[in-house]
């Protein structure tokens, strides 16, 4: 196997320079970095991870902690984070953490004791969990969050949840809908609650009175999309459109509509949120809000490994497909 000395000799640089390139250290010129990278590829050099850990006092592990019942959301972020970790010479560790109970701190403490990751990132709703954030601070672990909405010293990558909710309202109102049901996120999911706030903003701006019966709580899973849809469609004046605040619940609404013999979108329009893979595999294909989940996963790893000072900004996009259409004539 090639050694770091072989790489240094081929690139015409010092062993220290090779080490700095391998560890993605700053202040290495682009010319030197290209020469070392070319030598690494030519020699098929693979750094000794144990030696890297001992030399740098790092584990080269990043931990992703999550508690979100929507698998499409988690997997999108995880794919982006894992790919970026691989590019930077790190590995991703994924750990589910419960929202309540002391055992969640035991899980976190064991993770840290066994692996000592170089950083941890959180996705909603854990990104707004003050107890988890406090424990990570006590453990002196660098922490980055996606879509955190509470104050914390940890690095946060904001997402335009409220404006995206307003975008959905404007879309459905523009199609002539006035009775619109909303299946809301779990109350623990503060970031996603902003989607509902933005939707309410759109109703108010259009002069549509807010009917609290049209807002039902969901659990971000398929089953609560069905149960939430049943509540809304059982109203004396049922909605002509339903906004489910994630795709899993929207797919539940579509299934319920098919069971009831409703034509989509002629009888009922449905809009989701996230643009997960399931949004394209259902019939009709789901109108939804696209979050750049993989890019968000890459960005949060960049923040931990490269120490970004400023958070990147992301754009959410409404993707109109066949599940939403003109409101039925009264």
What would you say this structure looks like, in words?
The protein has 330 residues and is of the alpha/beta class. The chain contains 13 helices and eleven strands. The chain has helices at residues 4-11, 15-22, 30-43, 49-56, 71-87, 103-115, 130-138, 161-174, 190-205, 222-233, 247-259, 278-281, 293-306; strands at 61-66, 91-96, 119-122, 143-146, 155-157, 180-184, 215-217, 241-244, 269-271, 288-290, 317-319. The longest helix has 17 residues, at 71-87. The chain starts with a helix and ends in an 11-residue tail after the last strand. The model has no long low-confidence stretch (mean pLDDT 89).
Describe the protein's topology.
Blueprint: H1 4-11, H2 15-22, H3 30-43, H4 49-56, E1 61-66, H5 71-87, E2 91-96, H6 103-115, E3 119-122, H7 130-138, E4 143-146, E5 155-157, H8 161-174, E6 180-184, H9 190-205, E7 215-217, H10 222-233, E8 241-244, H11 247-259, E9 269-271, H12 278-281, E10 288-290, H13 293-306, E11 317-319
Parallel strand pairs: 1-2, 1-3, 3-4, 4-5, 6-7, 6-8, 8-9
Antiparallel strand pairs: 10-11
Helix pairs in contact: 1-2, 1-3, 2-3, 5-13, 8-9, 10-11
């Amino acid at each position: 196997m090639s050694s770091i000395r072989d790489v240094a000799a081929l690139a015409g640089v010092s062993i220290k320079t090779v080490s700095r390139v391998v560890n993605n250290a700053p202040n290495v010129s682009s010319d030197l970095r290209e020469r070392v990278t070319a030598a690494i590829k030519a020699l098929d050099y693979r750094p000794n991870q144990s030696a890297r850990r001992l030399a740098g006092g790092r584990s080269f592990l990043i931990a992703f902690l999550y508690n979100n019942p929507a698998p499409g959301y988690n997997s999108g972020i995880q794919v982006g984070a894992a790919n970026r970790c691989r590019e930077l010479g790190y590995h991703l560790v994924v750990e589910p953490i419960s929202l309540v109970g002391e055992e969640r701190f035991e899980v976190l403490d064991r993770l840290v004791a066994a692996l000592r990751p170089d950083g941890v990132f959180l996705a909603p709703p854990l990104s707004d969990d003050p107890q988890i954030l406090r424990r990570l601070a006590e453990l002196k672990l660098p922490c980055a969050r996606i879509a955190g909405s509470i104050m914390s010293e940890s690095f946060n990558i904001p997402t335009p949840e409220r404006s995206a909710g307003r975008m959905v309202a404007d879309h459905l109102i523009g199609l002539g809908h006035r009775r619109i049901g909303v299946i809301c996120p779990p109350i623990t999911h503060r970031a996603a609650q902003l989607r509902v706030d933005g939707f309410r903003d759109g109703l108010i701006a259009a002069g549509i009175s807010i009917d609290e019966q049209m807002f039902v709580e969901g659990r971000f899973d398929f089953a609560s999309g069905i149960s939430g849809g049943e509540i809304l469609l059982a109203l004396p004046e049922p909605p002509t459109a339903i906004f489910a605040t994630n795709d899993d619940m929207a797919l539940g609404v579509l299934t319920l509509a098919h069971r009831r013999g409703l034509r989509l979108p002629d009888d009922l329009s449905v809009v989701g949120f996230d643009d997960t893979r399931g949004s394209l595999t259902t019939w009709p294909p789901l109108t939804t809000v696209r979050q750049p989940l993989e890019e968000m996963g890459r960005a949060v790893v960049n923040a931990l490994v490269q120490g970004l000072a400023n958070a990147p900004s992301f754009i959410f996009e409404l993707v109109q497909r066949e599940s939403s259409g003109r409101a039925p004539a009264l």
